[in-house]
Amino acid sequence: MGLCVFDFDSTLMDGETIDFLAGALGLQEKVAEITEMAMRGELDFFESLITRVKLLEGLEVEKVDEICHSLPYMPGAKETIAQLKKLGHTVVVFSGGFRNATSYAKEILGFDADFSNVLHAKDGRLTGLVGGDMMFDFSKGDMLLRLQAILGVSPKDTIVVGDGANDRSMFQHANKKIAFCAKEILKKEANIVIDKKDLREILQYLS
């Protein structure tokens, strides 16, 4: 039995969920700039997340769900997950993004579980507050260690796939570390680098 953990934004999904949400408020450029800096490792992830979510204050939850349910998935995402599961891997998503997107994607793409963050809402609108499983730079590595312990899976049987600085912590605990269309900061930590925007490229490294 193996474990494969995917990042969501810019890995399973083609883009950043928070940038799409900010677009509904005319703030996409402002938020995207902060996102990009965080993914390059130039900003603390927690601080950048708090700052960006605050800018979403007032956005209707209905609009959030509408956007999260129409996100563009990465080419080959569904087929790659299906093949991984066929080979006996548990497939999980760790996302510094939001459950509105990852839980919906779970039904579409077929992975086993998602760990992400929750946008706090009141009276049908976002309050600008956020909490959840993936708030910090270390969160993905921390959660991976716990999952490996629960499932009885070693780093030798673990594959991780990501694109940004907040994926580095989980790269420490897996033998196959795949940087997918990634920032340079993550490529340095990877032993497999894929620059073609098609997740099926991963399948050649599974044997």
List keywords for this structure.
Rossmann fold, 7-stranded mixed sheet, 207 residues, globular, single chain, alpha/beta
Describe this structure in words.
The chain has a seven-stranded mixed β-sheet with strand order 4-3-2-1-5-6-7, sandwiched between helices. It has nine helices and seven strands, in the order βαααααβαββαβαβαβ. It has 207 residues and is an alpha/beta fold. It has helices at residues 17-23, 28-39, 45-54, 61-68, 77-86, 99-109, 139-151, 168-171, 184-187, and strands at 2-7, 89-98, 113-122, 125-132, 158-162, 176-180, 192-194. The model has no long low-confidence stretch (mean pLDDT 96). Helix 6 links the parallel strand 2 and strand 3. It has one domain (2-205): 3-Layer(aba) Sandwich (Rossmann fold).
Global mean pLDDT: 96
Determine the strand fraction and express it as a percent band: 15-25%
Low-confidence stretches: none
The tally of beta strands, per DSSP, is 7
The CATH topology name reads Rossmann fold
Distance separating the two termini: 14 Å
The CATH superfamily name is HAD superfamily/HAD-like
Q: Which sequence of SSEs, written as H and E, runs from N to C?
A: EHHHHHEHEEHEHEHE
Summarize the amount of helix as a percent range.
25-40%
CATH architecture: 3-Layer(aba) Sandwich
How many structural domains does the protein architecture include? 1
Query: Main beta sheet: strand number and arrangement?
Result: 7 strands, mixed
